[in-house]
Write a sequence for this structure.
């Protein structure tokens, strides 16, 4: 079971201790049964006395407690590691992979899967202890009557088989329910983000509720109910098998084989002792099945630190950042591949651990190998071009049924110089933001060369390249703290910038923490600019930054802030639709449906 492998991977020593303690406990439990048996048996055993009973009970108590403590620690440690690994995994995953997964899937994994897995992992300690007790009791049964033992074990295996057969279907239902969870989370996302629209439009709201939110919720409920009922059948079947076995032994086997009374008493005692742990295990199985599904889902998300595209392995982060940046793009192409899942984003080649191929490290991956990530200009194993990817400069192809055609940007050829302001312009969806993600190092070109000060950029130095740029994207996030900037005098620096950007009356900073971020969109963008200016990096990238600013401050931005950055030798990239300011650019890059238009010698020709 993937769940157990996961727990063992956290600490096999801990598991080994817990298992040994559990087995001792199980054996002590069995011995307890012999003690009771010796007292109530028609031929009382002289060895059975209260001191031995008390000593055995103490062993049962201590070993049970010890394995419970060890396994609880282990389970919580596993959950902690999982949370830590998922958190870092999200940060480490390439942006394009996260974009393809979508926020709703990420949220479902970070909340639902982790919660489900926690429940499953937390159930494992008691399951282990119960299993040890069952082993102990069955061993005792084997000693008192090998015949009864054989029948009992046969019947137990039969009921396990019945439960397992039904559990396969139940597992599949839980898997489907988990997929529906993604949809439900997507609907909840629409509720929170689209609350204004839903409130304003009754018919849309009703339709949305019925078809999406309630639809997914109903489906989830039905799947869970069906799974629960099927599992109850499985439990019933298991119980029936056990009762039938008991009847067979008590009323058939005992008479047929003339089993002595002591053996029968021992058997009854053992089954009484067994019923509790067996029931416990049965009740925990749904939790374990759901946990197994959650773990597989987490692995499928490819967010684990073990994945070969782990960005923490990217190079160049420890190099000194450049002070002036000349960025050159030569025949650079980039394509989105639609939204198929699971995706195999670009990433550095697998490290030494992956030398045997990722499939060797994870048997589940071997079952579901990740598709190759086709790149423009690359060929498939048969030597022909791979599907979906247009050759450089060509429009995207419409792919097979159910897949959305991607978008292609390029080939891009441009040079961005220090002390130069470049405007990137073009219609909606022409690829400006995609170019911004390339220029800031969030995406890597799929073909062509992007270089910084003459050094080609790849996975080996992408972190170094990213550190050259301060970017404010259209969908930027504002942190309340100035993470990573806590240097002496930071408050004064920030407050001075807040004054300059005319928002000091709305927000202040104390110990690197902003007093508020409940601001208008324009004010929030000014705060983002504060962070960017604090970074003082050689490249500044603004994606439609001025669009939400009042006319007066827009003037300040284009005439003063950009001029100041140019004067300080910064390489400035401004994505804008505002043609009133095009004449202020040193260079204009115009995009049209992903293609770069022939450079216009006079930037002013775009001006009104
Ligand atoms: N993560 C993504 N996955 C797949 N396709 C994407 C993704 N992001 C953008 N696209 C597609 O790429 C194209 C270019 O998008 P981009 O955001 O670069 O355009 P833009 O020029 O910035 O547009 P706008 O002016 O409207 O902001 C669009 O057709 C869009 O559908």
């Amino acid at each position: 079971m993937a769940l157990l492998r996961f727990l063992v991977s956290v600490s096999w020593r801990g598991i080994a201790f817990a298992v040994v303690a559990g087995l001792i406990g199980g054996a002590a439990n069995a011995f307890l049964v012999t003690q009771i048996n010796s007292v109530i048996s028609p031929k009382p055993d002289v060895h059975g006395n209260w001191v031995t009973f008390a000593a055995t009970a103490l062993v049962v108590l201590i070993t049970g407690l010890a394995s419970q403590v060890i396994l609880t620690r282990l389970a919580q440690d596993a959950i902690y590691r999982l949370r830590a690994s998922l958190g870092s995994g999200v940060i480490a995953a390439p942006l394009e992979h996260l974009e393809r997964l979508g926020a709703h899937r990420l949220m479902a994994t970070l909340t639902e899967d982790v919660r489900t897995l926690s429940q499953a992992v937390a159930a494992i300690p008691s399951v282990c202890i119960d299993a040890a007790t069952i082993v102990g009791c069955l061993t005792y049964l084997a000693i008192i009557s090998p015949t009864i033992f054989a029948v009992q074990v046969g019947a137990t295996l039969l009921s396990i088989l019945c439960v397992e057969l039904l559990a396969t279907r139940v597992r599949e239902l839980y898997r489907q329910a988990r997929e529906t969870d993604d949809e439900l989370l997507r609907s909840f996302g629409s509720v929170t983000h689209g609350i204004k629209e839903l409130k304003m439009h009754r018919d849309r709201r009703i339709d949305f509720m019925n078809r999406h939110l309630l639809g997914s919720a109903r489906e989830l409920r039905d799947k869970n109910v069906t799974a629960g009922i099927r599992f109850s059948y499985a439990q019933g079947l298991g119980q029936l098998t056990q009762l039938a076995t008991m009847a067979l032994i008590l009323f058939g086997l005992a008479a047929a084989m003339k089993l002595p009374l002591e053996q029968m008493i021992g058997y009854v005692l053992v089954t009484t002792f067994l019923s509790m742990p067996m029931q416990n295990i049965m009740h925990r199985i749904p939790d374990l099945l759901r946990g197994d599904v959650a773990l597989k889902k987490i692995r499928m998300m490819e967010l684990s630190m073990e994945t070969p595209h782990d960005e923490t392995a990217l190079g160049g982060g420890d190099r000194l950042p450049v002070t002036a940046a000349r960025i050159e793009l030569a025949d650079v192409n980039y394509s989105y591949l639609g939204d198929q899942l699971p995706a195999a984003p670009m990433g550095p080649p697998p490290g030494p651990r992956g030398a045997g191929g990722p499939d060797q490290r994870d048997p589940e991956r071997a079952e579901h190998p990740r598709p190759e990530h086709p790149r423009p200009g690359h060929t498939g194993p048969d030597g022909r071009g791979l599907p979906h990817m247009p050759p450089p400069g060509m429009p995207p192809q419409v792919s097979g049924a159910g897949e959305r055609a991607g978008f292609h940007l390029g080939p891009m050829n441009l040079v961005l110089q220090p002390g130069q302001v470049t405007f990137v312009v073009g219609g909606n969806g022409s690829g400006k933001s995609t170019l911004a993600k390339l220029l800031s190092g969030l995406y890597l070109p799929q073909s062509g060369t992007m270089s910084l000060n003459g050094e080609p950029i790849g996975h080996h130095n992408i972190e170094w390249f990213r550190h050259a740029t301060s970017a404010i994207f259209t969908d930027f996030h504002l942190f309340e703290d100035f993470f990573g900037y806590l240097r002496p005098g930071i408050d004064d620096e920030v407050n001075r910038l807040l004054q300059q950007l005319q928002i000091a009356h709305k927000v202040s900073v104390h110990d690197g923490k902003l007093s508020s971020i409940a601001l208008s969109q324009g004010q929030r963008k000014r705060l983002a600019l504060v962070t960017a200016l604090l970074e003082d990096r050689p490249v500044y990238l603004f994606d439609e930054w001025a669009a939400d600013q009042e006319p007066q401050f827009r003037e300040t931005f284009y005439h003063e802030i950009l001029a100041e950055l140019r004067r300080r030798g910064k390489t400035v990239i401004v994505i804008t639709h505002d043609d009133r300011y095009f004449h202020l650019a040193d260079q204009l890059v115009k995009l049209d449906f992903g293609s770069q238009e022939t450079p216009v010698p006079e930037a002013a020709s775009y001006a009104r």
